[in-house]
Amino acid sequence: MSMSFERYMLDMIQPMRDDLTRIGIEELRTPEEVEEKLPTASGTTLVVVNSVCGCAAGQCRPGVAEALQHDALPDHLYTVFAGQDKEATAKAREYFAPYPPSSPSIALMKDGELVHFIERHQIENRSAGEIAEDLTAAFDRYCR
């Protein structure tokens, strides 16, 4: 029995995708989907750059989930998966300038413009609660 590497990776990362989609975050899997959603989104938009990295992404996803229990929330919720949906991730990152590529990372946009960005180094070695606090402070500032 042989399994392709691609199939293996898809199976391995599905739970990581599910961590975000089950809480209502829409996956953008192609550059066309990113281009259709990000520049035209009115109001506030959260974009989570998901990642396989356990040391950072293992706290990022729960931190995002915790933050989404807050009373002030973004109007739109999206995710791209670094290393998997490479072209979609590259397209999304075009909207995160001047920040270099970072995964995982979290962007908050308002009317198509980046207003808050959490880079990987701001996720590493932090708890889900600390990440959620950072996000909810940004939600309070931009999503009310």
TrEMBL record:
<comment type="similarity">
    <text>Belongs to the bacilliredoxin family.</text>
</comment>
<dbReference type="InterPro" id="IPR009474">
    <property type="entry name" value="BrxB/BrxA"/>
</dbReference>
<protein>
    <submittedName>
        <fullName>BrxA/BrxB family bacilliredoxin</fullName>
    </submittedName>
</protein>
<dbReference type="Pfam" id="PF06491">
    <property type="entry name" value="Disulph_isomer"/>
</dbReference>
